[in-house]
Amino acid sequence: xxxYNGIRRDFLRVGGxxxxxxxxxxxxxxxxxxxxxxxxxxxxxxxxxxxxxTGDGKTLDTAAVNHAIEAAAAAGGGVVVFSAGSYLCFSIHxxxxxxxxxxxxxxxxxxxxxxxxQQTGYNGGAYDAAEPKTEWDAYQDYGHxxxxxxxxxxxxxxxxxxxxxxxxxxxxxxxxxNRGARGNYPVFVAEQAGVGNKAIALKNCxxxxxxxFSILKGGHFGLLLTGVDNLTIDNLLIDTxxxxxxxxxxxxxxxxxxxxxxxxxxxxxxxxxxxxxxxxPTRNLTITNCWVTGYYELGxxxxxSFKKFAxxxxxxxxxxxxxxxxxxxxxxxxxxxxxxxxxxxxxxxETVDGALLEDFTITNTTMRDLISGxxxxxxxxxxRGPQESTKVGTLKRILVSNLTCYNAxxxxxxxxxxxxxxxxxxxxxxxxxxxxxxxxxxxxxxxxPPEFENKYPEPGMFGAMxxxxxxxxxxxxxxxxxxxxxxxxxxxxxxxxLTGVERADFFAITAPRNADGAFALHGVKDFRxxxxxxxxxxxxxxxxxxxx
Length: 548
What we know:
Helix content: under 10%
Distance between the termini: 53 Å
Largest sheet: 34 strands, mixed
């Protein structure tokens, strides 16, 4: 990938100070600043160049940028402006009532982290140290517990925003575990002192707006937002080497109009970890009008070349929208609409650490060239959390409608799986069309996937599946209507495999019938199918070992 030190993007998006500027107080006193710096104008505009920033991409501008932010905060609020230029920085400290404005052509450039065994990075600098370890660190992966070792971070701040058409380039950030080659970047050890591994990290904040800017190579997390309420994320373009955005233990959140290319990890990832030291749900969340993908080489979505990985490239192509895996607090009241998936995995709704995952509506989704089934729901018992309070959670009241998927994989179908004694409940799927690759043999139809009750949840965790459409296990009250499953070439497996399912209704189902039919029923209670091309009308109180 070409060097991005000199990136100057021509965005079609144009934003002004608008309402943000209107809300800023008129200032009656000069802000504190370094000796020789110019006074801020009366309207509260703080240009980082007037505080000593060079914007040349070679000189460290960390101190100047932090001085400008501190001055704006001391004045009661203001707009900190980054004009066109490349601002090389280590950790930037965010403050309440401060708005960062990234003008067209501006780049916030993450300086190089210290290499393994070294104490400092570029020009003797380093990122802020990660917070000391706590007793609950063991309940989630390392990166989720630390915020200060980031390019930009804020804790316990409010009424804060970053907008503008500039770029945040995490060139010197660590992406954590090495999950395959991704450009000419050194591998930093995330736990090492002085290493930064997040582009933006916020903890225990409220009234936050992130809009219109782009992130290239965001480290382990482009956005790590933990305990952030009244949060708006709009029109971001994230082209990165791990997670695009993690929305963890947050409430009243709006994510809209975002593009995320994250081949090595998840694109948009709501979580509910124990990182705050207690279980807090992610609640009242909407995600709309977003495109997620794992198809493209790092940087090629940002520069518009859209260069796909070679077919033999060893890249996970994860990309998706996923709730989990950290799932202590819960996911409640979530709506996902009008999203596009390309060259990545499908939806994943996971609760394996005791959380409630309840009241979801997912509608109007288009998917293409997936590497796993379009829908994965998993209720499990990993139970990573305080032993005295962590019990198996719930996964219930999920509505999925108006979904189309072209070129789903052969081996991994859509999977909805609870565990013995704990069923997924009240799931309704409607107006769905899925075309799979097909091609599986009769031997595949005999597969009996293991339970793996306490295993890390992923669509591929069970291996190849005995159905080409949907594998349903440990469910109660599932309804499918106007669902069609097709395949590119014939497939010897049934379209639907049900085991340990109670009360299942299928209406207007279309699927190719092989020699053994379209449905395989094992240990199923209260089953009905009607007005369908996949099988004749039928109803069973109890059925086991039967195909239709």
